[in-house]
Structure formats: structure tokens, C-alpha cells
Amino acid sequence: MARRFRGFLPIVVDVETAGFNARTDALLEVAAVILAMDESGTIYPEHTVSRHVEPFPGANLEQSALDFTGIDPYNPLRAAIPERDALGEIFSAIRKAVRAQNCNRAILVGHNATFDHSFLFAASNRADIKRNPFHPFSSFDTATLAGLAYGHTVLAKACELAGIEFNAREAHSAIYDAEKTAELFCAIVNRWQDLGGWPLPESQNQES
Hints:
Blueprint: E1 8-17, E2 27-37, E3 43-52, H1 63-69, H2 83-100, E4 105-110, H3 113-126, E5 134-141, H4 142-150, H5 155-162, H6 174-194, H7 202-207
Parallel strand pairs: 1-4, 4-5
Antiparallel strand pairs: 1-2, 2-3
């Protein structure tokens, strides 16, 4: 895995939020799918870590966003925890995976990755977390990759075109969307390998 992505471990992330502004709007759910690679070089989702998150003090909650996701931020059944605790637990699992796979750091994979990246880093900064395992600005965007591979950028449609089952009634849950995004990312990367795009020819490996 370390050779495949230049020392980075791809971690597929999805967040559910109470709006579109990462600085002012609440982060409500985070899910991260850790990927692994088998002996043939095929990547696959290994396991998922997720947490429900309490709105940070003074957070904005856009009713339209809550209606869209169906999340009640203050429902006690969510068992939500503060941002610092939620991200601390998720980041700890990611750092462990990075070490186990001999990588240098994690790189975020997301569907429209800029959105997830911005909310994750805004929350990390608010919580004053010093050991954020993710690259601070680089990411892999499956909307872009799906546009290239399947001619469609919407997650549900891209999954359908890739032969991945997608239930729209379960969408807009961080876990479900992260796991479907992970399946899509793996499908595209593995298809590229099947077409001969990886591993690189030996001469290029030596040059790099």
C-alpha cells in the first residue's frame, strides 16, 4: 500500500453536518473507512470507525440541512460525544492503521472531498488536536474519479454504473455513504490495475 500511493494510506471519510460552512456549522457525524491491500495488489475496505458528534458550543444549525439528513442533533439515542473525543478516537485508529501498513500519513478520500476535508480540519482545529493524521491539503475525490471512469459524478449513479448496490433510503448516513464511497474508490483503483495501469513498468519503478 505504501508503494501504491507514495507513502499515503487512503482513508475514506464522510461527514454529516448542519450546513455548508465548516467554520460556523455543526459537524454531526464522522465515518472513516480504512483500506487495505491483498497480496495481488487489490485494495479493499478493511474496517469502519465512526462517531456521532455533539454540536460545538455556538454552532449554527441550518434547519434545511437537518431536514435533508434527518438528524436530530440533540436526540439522546445518538450517543453523541464532543468533537475532541470523537476525532481523537477516529484519528487514533487511523494512526494505528498508518503504522501497520508502513505508510507515512493518511490521505482523505471523499465524494466531493473538499467538503469533508474542510469540516474535518475545522473541527480538528477547534478541538486543538495536534496529531491530525491526514495530509493538510491533498485528497482523492471520487466524484472526479467517477466522472473519468464512469461518466457520472453523483455517488448513487456512479455506484450503479460500477455495479455497486446503492440504497437511496440509507444514504446521508456517514457510515453508509463512507462505505459506498470506499467501494467505489476501490472499484476504480482496482479496475485501473486490471487495465494495466499498475504496477508501473519495471523501468519506471527504477527511475522513480
